[in-house]
Design a protein that fits this description.
With 106 residues, this protein is mainly alpha-helical. The chain is built from 4 helices and 2 strands, in the order E-E-H-H-H-H. The protein has one domain.
Length: 106
Amino acid sequence: MQFGANSNMAVGANSSTTVNNSQSAADTAAALREMISVLLELRAQLSPADRADIDESVSVIRQGERAEPGAMRRAVRTVVGIAKMAGTVGGPTLDAALKVKELLGL
C-alpha cells in the first residue's frame, strides 16, 4: 500500500526524475498508536456516552490497515467530532486523528 504522492517526470530525451513523498506502513502504524494513546487520555475526561463511542472507535483503529475502510473512516470521523467537542483538551487527539486521516487517505 502506498501513501502520499508519487510523481514521475521526464526530463530530456533519455532521463527522468522521480519524486516520492510516500509514507511507510511503519509511519501509519506509529500514527495509529499515537492516536490510540491520546484517545485513551482524552477518554477519562469524557461523558459515559462519549466514552462508549471512543471505545468503539478504538476497537476499529486497533485493527489498523486490516480494518474495513468504511469502518476506519467512521471511527476517525467519530474521533474528530468528539475531539472538536472536547475543546482545548481534545487538541492532541484532533491532531493525531487528522494525521491518520491524511496517511490513510480518508
